[in-house]
Amino acid sequence: MNYLVKLRQRWVSFLHNEALKEKIYSIVFESDTPKGKLFDIVLIGSIILSILLVILESMHFFPYSAYVVLRVLEYLLTLFFTVEYLARIYCLKQPFKYIFSFFGIVDLLATLPVYLSFFLHGSHYLLVIRAFRLIRIFRIFKLFKFIHEGNLLLRSLWISAPKISIFFFFVLILVTSMGTIMYMIEGTHPDSEFNNIPNSIYWAIVTMTTVGYGDITPVTPIGRFFSAVIMLIGYTIIAVPTGIVSATMVRQHKALEKRRCPRCHRDGHEPESLYCKYCGARLRREKTEVKEADVRKEQES
């Protein structure tokens, strides 16, 4: 009993050791310190190594002893990532914010596959999810400019989502109609592979996207002519979503350039920002910006 009491006291002391938490936090979450930068570099190296191990294990031309070594290394790396994940939770005052954040979910998904492999065969190949953890390299080497550009792209995709959804629905109706017409043209031919409407719709999708697997091909002259028309239509359709997103990105970029701080005269502020991120001065908002912000709020709601 005394041993259990002492063990419990040590556990409680460990959970409330603020000095240890601050030390772990400076190593795990901060890359400005030498130890923090070294930890992040070791972490990224381990991520790359674990991905290479999964790739090598799938190539099935090594002797059995080599696969044993690969699997042991995989277990050791998983143990390291598990300890790292728990350390991140341990040193935070509000751990649930990290657990349900993007990086927290990715860190958890990158750790689980090896444990799932004990119950589900082949699930450890999902370790390639760890590639998403390489995003931390932006934080280590101070490449925040690229993160800003990525946010601009994501924001443009989000704003363009309604237009792209309508366009996708139109394309869905189009391929369904063209597949049905192709079934009417080719379905009666004895050597035709258009023996039902779902196969014909599948062919229309493959043809319109210019993929062209060649597993289903028309045999009649009218069917070949119609397939050529679908191919030409596909070339014009593919460019539409790209144009929508590109136009939105240009508008977003111009909006960022217009948002110049009246005090320090620096630009590059987010459309929804109220204060300058460099000097803290309040930003002026144009009427068009206010309207765009209202539209985004309506779309998000």
UniProtKB/TrEMBL annotation:
The keyword Kinase does not apply. InterPro entries: Ion_trans_dom, VG_K_chnl, Volt_channel_dom_sf. Signal peptide: none annotated. The chain crosses the membrane at residues 38-56, 68-87, 99-118, 164-185, 225-250. This is Ion transporter. Keywords: Ion channel, Ion transport, Membrane, Potassium, Potassium channel, Potassium transport, Transmembrane, Transmembrane helix, Transport, Voltage-gated channel. It holds the Pfam family Ion_trans. It is found in: Membrane. It is a multi-pass membrane protein. Residues 37-254 form the Ion transport domain.
